[in-house]
Amino acid sequence: MSPSTVDSPPDVAALPDPFNFAGHLLALNQSRPDRLAYVDDLGSLTYGELDERVRRVAAALRASGVKREERVLLMMQDTLDWPASFLGAMYIGAVPVAVNTLLTEEDYAYMLEHSRAQVVLVSGALLPALQGALRKCPAHEVQRVVVSRPVDALAFGHTDFDAFVAAHAPLAAPAGTHADDPGFWLYSSGSTGRPKGTVHSHGNPYWTAELYGKRVLNLREDDVCFSAAKLFFAYGLGNALTFPLCVGACTVLMAERPTPAASFKRLRGESRGVRPTVFFGAPTGFAAMLASADLPPASATALRLVSSAGEALPAELGHRFKAHFGVDIVDGIGSTEMLHIFLSNRPDAVAYGTTGWPVPGYRIELRGEDGQAVKDGEPGDLFIAGPSAAIMYWGNREKSRETFQGGWTKSGDKYIRNADGTYTYCGRSDDMLKVSGIYVSPFEVEATLVQHPSVLEAAVIGVADEDGLMKTKAYVVVREGRTVTDDELKAFVKERLAPYKYPRQIEFIAELPKTATGKIQRFKLRQLGAVAA
Question: Are 45 and 38 in contact (CB under 8 A)?
Answer without folding.
Answer: yes
